[in-house]
Design a protein that fits this description.
With about 140 residues, the protein is mainly α. The protein has one domain. It is about 75% helix and about 5% strand. It has a two-stranded antiparallel sheet. The protein is rod-shaped. It starts with 6 loop residues before the first helix and ends with a strand.
């Protein structure tokens, strides 16, 4: 039954056996070999339990290192994205300004052409007509 409880159950069973053997040692029924075998098993289980106790700590430290590394990388990437976002917002603002300047220039051109008594037309580099004053 103690065997089913794992490492601590095995140790408890071994300790009970050792107690019984030590009680019998006065009567001569306990052999030194049997006591030495119990001592070896107890030492083996002690080492195994110590190793098991260390595993969660190692796992936790590994998890903490991984978590810390992940947090560092997230912070680094967030800074990069904020910088890129700032640059893009500046570019957008510049494009909007330039677009408004172009529209203003186009409105001025249309007003000038509309008021001009002379005929006005525009051509592209190949000489094709791209604009003709209609008024």
């Amino acid at each position: 039954m103690a065997e089913e409880k794992g490492g601590s159950g095995k140790i408890i069973a071994l300790l009970r056996r050792a107690e019984l053997l030590l009680a019998d040692s006065g009567t001569g029924r306990a052999s030194p070999e049997e006591l030495a075998g119990i001592a070896r098993e107890l030492a083996r289980h002690r080492v195994e339990l110590e190793r098991q106790d260390e595993e969660p700590a190692r796992g936790k430290n590994g998890w903490q290192k991984g978590h810390g590394e992940l947090e560092r990388r997230v912070a680094e990437r967030t800074a990069e994205l904020k910088s890129a976002n700032s640059r893009l917002q500046q570019e957008i603002a510049l494009c909007k300004t330039e677009e408004e300047e172009l529209r203003s220039g186009e409105r001025s051109f249309r007003q000038l052409v509309a008021m001009s008594p002379a005929g006005i037309w525009l051509t592209d580099k190949r000489g094709r007509c791209t604009y003709v004053q209609t008024t």
